[in-house]
Amino acid sequence: MADAYTAESIKVLEGLEGVRKRPSMYIGSTGKDGLHHLIYEIVDNSVDEALAGYCTEIKVSLGKDGSATIEDNGRGIPVDIHPIYKIPAIEVALTKLHAGGKFDKKSYMISGGLHGVGTSVVNALTIKMIVKVKRDGNIYEQEYSRGNPQTKLKIVGKCPVNETGTIITFWPDKEIFSTVDFDYKVLETRFREIAFLNSGLKIILYDEEKSKQEEFIASGGLVEFVKWLNKSKESLHKPVYFKREQENTVVEVSIQYNEGYQENIFGFVNTINTVEGGTHVFGFKTALTRVINDYAKRKGIIKEESFSGEDVREGLTAIISIKIPNPQFEGQTKTKLGNSEIKGFVDSIVTSALSEYFEENPMIARKIVSKAESAAKARMAAKKAKELVRRKNAFSLGGLPGKLTDCSTKKAEEAELYIVEGDSAAGPGKEGRDRNTQAILPLRGKILNVEKSNQIKALSSEEITNMITAIGTGIGENFDIEKLRYHKIVIMTDADVDGGHIKTLMLTFFFRFMPKLIENGNIYAAMPPLYRIRKGQKDYYVYSDEELKKLLDKLDGNASNVTRFKGLGEMSAQQLWDTTMNPQTRKIKKIFIDDAVEADATFSMLMGDDVQARKVFISENAKEANLDI
Ligand code: 0RA
User: Fold this and answer.
1) What is the pLDDT of residue 109?
2) Domain extents in the chain
3) Cβ of 72 less than 6 Å from ligand 1
4) Could you identify the atom of ligand 1 that is nearest to the CA of residue 100?
5) Are strands 416-421 and 488-492 parallel, antiparallel or unpaired?
6) Residue 553: what pLDDT?
7) What is the secondary structure of 99-160 as a DSSP string?
8) Residue 249: exposure state from Cβ atoms within 10 A (0-12, 13-18, ≥19)
């Protein structure tokens, strides 16, 4: 018996050593994303308890000491002796990869992207983990380090017999992670999503350091989610909602059109945000186009000409949440659903449910059809406008905008486009740049707010068409990444409020017209310095008032003529090159979308009509100077 125990333990340990050797294989990365996955992994287990009907509340606390605690009121991880391993089941669950009865039988493996790698993986990657379980009137506790038990499972106290749950506290291992600081905002976004997707489940997020606590609970589920997404837009009708279950599969859809022009479809598979879409979203889109066309034809609203997919998705906010037993995830970030059978499945469910809904709610159906009608009209007009743009461009050299000072290389991989605010900054930019690889496109003042205009208006703006033609990919359904002319596109604006606004307008343009470039990591923001400090022959550049104060303290009064750059135009070509353009020494920030739901909400709010919401956001984020998306 003792031998069997030892042999099993060794096998178990080998398993977790593999996790420590190749952590990214289990948690995606050892950076910020991977770090947060530790929390999601445990929370997902708690959510499973909720789905099974045993848990109503999950509390996540970030400790001052760098710990994370996840507490739920589920059944508690079983503590009885495991029939094969002869140790408490909880120890098996925490030390063996994919261990535990529940994990084998689970109908849905849900997870924040890693698809149920298990609590043992988290255990392996933490310097310390304390697990408490309330079950059968007892409070059990066990401590681990890097996946190894440090104590036996002990009873440390009593509790009422009907009180059950699991409390896991862990400290991520600095040997594994490049950062061990949890980001409240990242967690907040994910938990809001989980709450929307699991109607009635309460999630509490608490940050001990900031004494900040928030509760996420959505009794209205997806309907509330869609309303939340549209909160700073003018909606056209109450959200459409339906849910259908067949065999092992659940399809849940909520849609609401707004007065705007953007299309926002968010897909979820087992509560994972499928950023890259997939067969469920594809099936939904096909059904939507068909149902709206069929309805409009049946009611005699249109005859021959039909609405395109883009027509019926203008101003649409939709959530398609499905739950399936064996999701296959594909794509760069493993967030694209691959299961081919799901396309037809979602298509047929949405077709029948939405047709039924339209018949029962003719007022809403009419509104949606007339929205598609005006989109179709705009599409025809936009087509003409696009042809006009194309013809206009044909007259300038090589079809490129006259304002573009191009680089000489024809290799897109090494080419960079600097989009520069104002002509005054373009001067030093053109003079200081590396002519071979860096192109300059000056923009006059503020570009059009694309959030508030339709395509025709956007395409009649010279600044916008200049950007589109210089970049080369086209937009919308004609977007072709192969035609991208520069692999780095750098937005260079002044480091002041106006510059910040122009930067936001440009990011909105990219987010709405060429989101693939952001996903692909092609979009950057330049970081021009705020001050130059001279000491003797040496120049220092600093990027914030805080940094300036620190440097002046360090130089101890030995610095001469601190210069504040009011704008890029005030820098010499050499200074601009040294600080902002020279690939060896410059600071540039890659723009990426952490979370598409959050980014959409932020852009709608920043660029939309709700002045109050914008004021609140700006005052809450004022300290962060730059908009971090
Ligand atoms: C295995 C089996 C059962 C529950 C759990 C694990 C479980 C794991 C975690 C992780 C965090 N919170 C959790 N809550 C439960 C089923 C227990 C039973 O059948 O009584």
Assistant:
1) 41
2) 17-216, 222-378, 398-528+574-624, 531-564
3) yes
4) 1
5) parallel
6) 87
7) -SHHHHH-S----SSS----HHHHHHTEEEEEEEEEETTEEEEEEEETTEESS--EEEEE--
8) middle
Give every CB contact of residue 297 below 8 A, 6+ residues apart in sequence. Answer: 303, 306
Torsion of CA 406, 408, 413, 416, to 10 degrees: -30
Helix, strand, or coil (residue 215) = strand
CATH superfamily to which 17-216 belongs: Histidine kinase-like ATPase, C-terminal domain (3.30.565.10)
Check if 102 has its Cβ closer than 6 Å to any atom of ligand 1: yes
User: What's the start-to-end Cα distance of the chain, in Å?
Assistant: 57
| CB of 116 closer than 6 angstroms to any ligand 1 atom | no
Tokens of 598: 């959050």
CA atoms within 13 A on the CB side of 389: 25
Contacts of residue 623, Cβ cutoff 8 Å, sequence gap at least 6: none
| Spatial separation of the C-alpha atoms in residues 198 and 194, rounded to whole Å | 6
Looking at the DSSP bridge assignments, the partners of residue 59 are 71, 204
Strand order in the sheet with 264-269: 240-246, 249-257, 316-323, 264-269, 272-273
On whether the 222-378 domain is CATH 3.40.30.10, my answer is no
Class of domain 398-528+574-624: alpha beta
Phi, psi torsion values for 536, nearest 5 degrees: 60, -125
What pTM, to 2 d.p., does this model score?
A: 0.70
Q: Report, as ranges of residue numbers, the positions in the chain whose pLDDT lies below 50.
A: 1-13, 99-116, 394-397, 622-629
- Confidence at residue 461, expressed as pLDDT on a 0 to 100 scale: 85
Which residue, chain included where needed, has tokens 């029939």? 83
With the most atoms of ligand 1 within 8 angstroms of its CB, the residue from 42, 49, 95 to mutate is 49
For residue 88, give the DSSP letter: B
